[in-house]
Specification:
By secondary structure, this protein is an alpha+beta fold. Strands 1-2-3 form a 3-stranded antiparallel beta sheet, with helices on one face. A hairpin with a 4-residue loop joins β2 and β3.
Length: about 70
């Protein structure tokens, strides 16, 4: 993939979305689904603020929908 090679040169990888989070030794890690379909837990400092903000917006919307279905 041409785009992946450019991402590697810049040191950035394309995130499809953040699927979850957990704490490891007191540090927040996010479960990232990469553009190639693979998933991995990454420390917060390795994930863009934009992706993190989008994760929390989506999480809030899901919680709101669940409350409205009751």
């Amino acid at each position: 993939k041409q785009n992946d090679a450019a991402d590697l040169e810049d040191g950035w990888y394309t995130i499809d979305r953040i699927c979850g989070k957990k704490k490891v030794r007191g540090k927040l890690h996010f479960l990232v689904r990469w553009s190639d379909g693979t998933k991995s837990y990454e420390p917060k400092e390795n994930v863009s603020e934009y992706a993190i903000n989008q994760y929390y917006v989506r999480l809030k919307q899901q919680q709101k929908r669940r409350r409205n279905q009751k």
